[in-house]
Automatic annotation (TrEMBL):
PANTHER family: AMINO ACID TRANSPORTER, ASC-TYPE AMINO ACID TRANSPORTER 1. The keyword Metal-binding does not apply. Keywords: Membrane, Transmembrane, Transmembrane helix. This is AAA1 protein. The chain crosses the membrane at residues 16-39, 51-73, 79-98. One of its GO terms (molecular function) is neutral L-amino acid transmembrane transporter activity. The keyword Transmembrane helix applies. Coiled coil: none annotated. One of its GO terms (biological process) is D-serine transmembrane transport. Gene3D superfamilies: Amino acid/polyamine transporter I (1.20.1740.10).
């Protein structure tokens, strides 16, 4: 979010759309690679929807072409897109990987989570589960 706000302040919307497009292409391809790896390593797990492996493999061929073409035609945009993705690495290490955090860090993370939930209207009732209508 912070990187997006900074880009919006110093750049134009077209540039931001280019950054996000590259990030989306990259994430979609990595997701499809994960699907193929899971189908190979854990073939017996439950899947509500199962497709022929020819479909994701075909998608990956086109994905690789688009990604290589993007890297060739606009390497700076792709580099900035990768930098935007990599800004999440410290957040992962601080919030998820680091298990024995001091209590002050845990309180800060919990308050930021609560604030974000209230801001986005995603706070569950006091029971902890969503109410059914």
């Amino acid at each position: 979010c912070l990187a997006t706000l900074i880009i919006m302040l110093v750049g134009d919307t077209y540039t931001l759309i280019n950054y996000v497009s590259f990030i989306n292409y990259l994430c979609y391809g990595v997701t499809i690679i994960g699907l193929i790896v899971l189908r190979w390593k854990k073939p017996k797990i439950f899947r509500p929807i199962k497709v022929n492996l020819l479909i994701p493999i075909t998608y990956l061929v086109f994905w690789a072409f688009l990604l290589i073409f993007s890297l060739y035609s606009e390497p700076i945009v792709c580099g900035v897109g990768l930098i935007i993705i990599l800004t999440g690495v410290p957040v992962f290490f601080l919030g998820v990987y680091w298990r024995n955090k001091p209590k002050c860090v845990n309180r800060l993370i919990e308050s930021m989570t609560c604030w974000g939930q209230k801001l986005c209207f995603v706070v569950y009732p006091h029971g902890g589960v969503a109410e059914e209508e």
